[in-house]
């Protein structure tokens, strides 16, 4: 009897000392009396009742049972359809979700730390009754994360659809999308907050900074970081524009000024990218994403293969041979890209034939009309370039998806590489040909100006004005259908959902960064030939800020927030372009008549001198990149302090556990000694103690 009582005491001591007092997914009821809709799920019309019941059950079921433990309600429309569902979550559930996704919030001591529910009282602005501690964008991101992580358990098929096969670990949302059962998932707008943001962002024309913190709170870090980079790049272009205007107006052709402008271009392209890293670090630290730990990346939803065991995680997931993927990349994708590049060069040669025809026509007629005809081939070529870029983009997306990359990061890297290679050749090949084969600086200036201005006009029309006009027409039709003459903020929930589900979908910042990348190329590669390139880039970017803000707030559905700590692979793309600009500008300087006059007898000396200067400038560029820290000193200190405190906390935890083990070992020995004097069974007690430890 004494042995049993002692064993129970030891077991309770071990359990109390080895587990922290924290709430689990199932220890609290996640029911929320006031339901707040955050995300909309639209199913296809005619979706079977058993499918809807199964999906909603998986969404509301507890985490222990493989569910998302969220709240869901059907949105009943006027015609009685129930294919739209509203998804929300309790305040407690969102806090636990914030911990699981690793959100970083500001503490009461002004430091940034990863949020944990057990230490919630230490975070600034937290209160049990404060439901605004997490922004609406963060709440929607948490819900999206939980929905995407809904995985099949024992189901073999989607109920009601025998052809839609499932296997353990398969993403339910992805399978529903690929089978056409799920139409879309999107987050709802907050009409009041959106109205305030519109007013401060683009509601009035002003010279000033964008409300990046407000943009981040509403749209998330990825979109806020894009607008921050767009604003920074626009301000960084101003020195180039200020210097370029008098250079162009007064037609400075002196050798010293020519070299000085090109040298400033090289210095400028290096400094702005290094300084941007520092600005980016300051912003993302303030937003908390600089400290977010990268979780183990799970397979992307579109990844498919034979079900197997992941050797790292030990979990069941699709397995696809890397050899098959490499075969697809090198035997299909690579030849296709090369074929597209060849076709781009073929179109370029047709453009030069048109240029020659226009020049011959002008020589024969020499009228105002013939002078205008000189610009027609460049305009046509610029339009063709834009069309080819967009068609190739769809082909690149299809090929990259067909390559079946396991990780989303790998998919994005291969897609960006394909698109950048083609766009670079398609947009700049003609300029390189004119500069370094034809040696026609006048035609180079004309072509650069025409390509830059035409592409900017086409992008503004295709990305902002046309979608805005289409959305305005759609909005008018919806209002007539609903017989509603209310303002945006006066829309009912049903009207708001019906209005937003018909809006366009924003597919991310890829195209926006690509446009800035090409613009950076036009400015940095050949701006010493056409100094007004920076001026037109500034004017375009000012209108781009307002047009992009307009389309984010009025044209597209609200995108899900995506935490990010940088602009990602685009930083490397811009740095690569700056390296290429060093080479092109050095060659342009070497081709100038003034420099050629310094080497009248030996062209080899000229080539060696240009190569030496180019290598020296590249070396200086890399030295500057090394000397300028990526993070400001105060951010480095804060990050180092957090790392030190984390190590100290780990030491304390290990020391505490070691002390507990020593205490339990001593206690076990003393109890066994006491039992020995009372002729009790000590062996069974030690066995229980060891199993508990």
Automatic annotation (TrEMBL):
Source taxon at top rank: Eukaryota
Gene Ontology molecular function: chloride channel activity
GO cellular component labels: plasma membrane
Domain Anoctamin transmembrane: residue ranges: 215-641
Keyword line: Membrane, Transmembrane, Transmembrane helix
Topological category with respect to the lipid bilayer: Multi-pass membrane protein
Subcellular location: Membrane
TM region positions: 232-252, 258-276, 329-352, 372-392, 415-436, 448-470, 516-539, 606-628
PANTHER family the record matches: ANOCTAMIN, ANOCTAMIN-10
Family per similarity comment: Belongs to the anoctamin family.
The protein's name: Anoctamin
Native species: Dromaius novaehollandiae
């Amino acid at each position: 009897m004494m042995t049993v009582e002692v064993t129970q005491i030891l077991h309770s001591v071990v359990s109390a000392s080895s587990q922290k007092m924290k709430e689990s997914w199932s220890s609290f009821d996640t029911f929320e009396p006031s339901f707040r809709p955050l995300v909309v799920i639209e199913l296809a019309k005619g979706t079977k009742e058993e499918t809807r019941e199964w999906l909603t059950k998986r969404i509301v079921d507890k985490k222990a049972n493989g569910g998302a433990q969220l709240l869901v309600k059907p949105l009943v429309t006027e015609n009685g359809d129930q294919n739209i569902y509203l998804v929300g979550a309790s305040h407690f559930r969102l806090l636990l979700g914030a911990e699981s996704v690793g959100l970083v919030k500001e503490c009461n001591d002004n430091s940034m730390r990863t949020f944990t529910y057990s230490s919630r009282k230490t975070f600034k602005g937290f209160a049990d009754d404060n439901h605004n501690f997490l922004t609406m964008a963060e709440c929607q991101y948490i819900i999206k994360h939980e929905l995407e992580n809904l995985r099949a358990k024992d189901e073999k098929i989607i109920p009601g659809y025998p052809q839609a096969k499932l296997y353990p670990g398969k993403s339910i949302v992805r399978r529903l999308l690929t089978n056409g059962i799920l139409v879309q998932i999107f987050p709802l707008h907050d009409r009041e907050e959106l109205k305030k943001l519109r007013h401060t962002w683009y509601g009035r024309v002003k010279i000033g900074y964008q409300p990046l913190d407000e943009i981040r709170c509403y749209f998330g870090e990825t979109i806020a970081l894009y607008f921050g980079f767009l604003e920074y790049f626009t301000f960084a272009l101003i020195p180039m524009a200020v210097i370029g205007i008098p250079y162009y107006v007064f037609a400075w052709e002196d050798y010293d000024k020519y070299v000085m402008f090109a040298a400033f271009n090289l210095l400028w392209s290096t400094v702005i990218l290094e300084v941007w890293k520092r600005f980016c670090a300051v912003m993302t630290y303030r937003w908390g994403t600089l400290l977010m730990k990268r979780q183990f990346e799970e397979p992307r939803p579109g990844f498919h293969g034979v079900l197997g065991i992941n050797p790292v995680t030990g979990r069941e997931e699709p397995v696809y041979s890397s050899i098959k993927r490499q075969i697809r990349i090198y035997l299909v994708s690579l030849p296709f890209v090369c074929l597209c590049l060849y076709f781009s060069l073929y179109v370029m040669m047709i453009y030069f034939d048109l240029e020659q025809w226009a020049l011959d026509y002008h020589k024969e007629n020499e009228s105002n009309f013939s002078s205008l005809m000189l610009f027609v081939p460049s305009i046509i070529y610029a339009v063709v370039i834009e069309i080819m870029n967009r068609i190739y983009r769809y082909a690149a997306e299809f090929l990259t998806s067909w390559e079946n990359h396991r990780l989303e990061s790998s998919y994005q890297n291969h897609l960006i590489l394909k698109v950048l290679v083609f766009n670079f050749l398609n947009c700049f090949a003609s300029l390189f040909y004119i500069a370094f084969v034809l040696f026609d600086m006048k035609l180079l200036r004309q072509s650069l100006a025409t390509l830059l201005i035409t592409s900017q006009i086409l992008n503004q029309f295709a990305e902002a004005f046309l979608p805005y006009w289409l959305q305005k027409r759609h909005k008018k039709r919806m209002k007539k259908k609903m017989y509603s003459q209310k303002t945006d903020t006066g829309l009912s929930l049903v009207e708001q959902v019906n209005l937003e589900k018909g809006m366009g979908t924003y597919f991310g910042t890829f195209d926006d960064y690509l446009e800035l990348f090409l613009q950076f190329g036009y400015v940095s590669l050949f701006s010493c030939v056409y100094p007004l390139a920076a001026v037109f880039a500034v004017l375009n970017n000012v209108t781009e800020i307002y047009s992009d803000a307009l389309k984010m707030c009025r044209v597209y559905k609200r995108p899900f927030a995506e935490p990010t700590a940088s602009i990602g692979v685009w930083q490397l793309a811009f740095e690569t372009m700056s390296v290429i600009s060093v080479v092109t500008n050095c060659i342009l300087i070497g081709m100038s008549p003034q420099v050629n006059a310094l080497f009248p007898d030996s062209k080899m000396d000229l080539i060696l001198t240009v190569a030496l200067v180019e290598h020296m400038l590249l070396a200086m560029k890399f030295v500057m990149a090394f000397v300028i820290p990526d993070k400001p000193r105060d951010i480095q200190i804060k990050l180092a302090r957090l790392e030190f405190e984390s190590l100290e906390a780990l030491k304390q935890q290990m020391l505490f556990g070691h002390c507990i083990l020593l205490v339990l070992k001593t206690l076990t020995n003393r109890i066994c000694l006491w039992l020995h004097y009372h002729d009790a069974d000590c062996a069974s007690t030690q066995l229980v103690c060891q199993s508990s430890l």
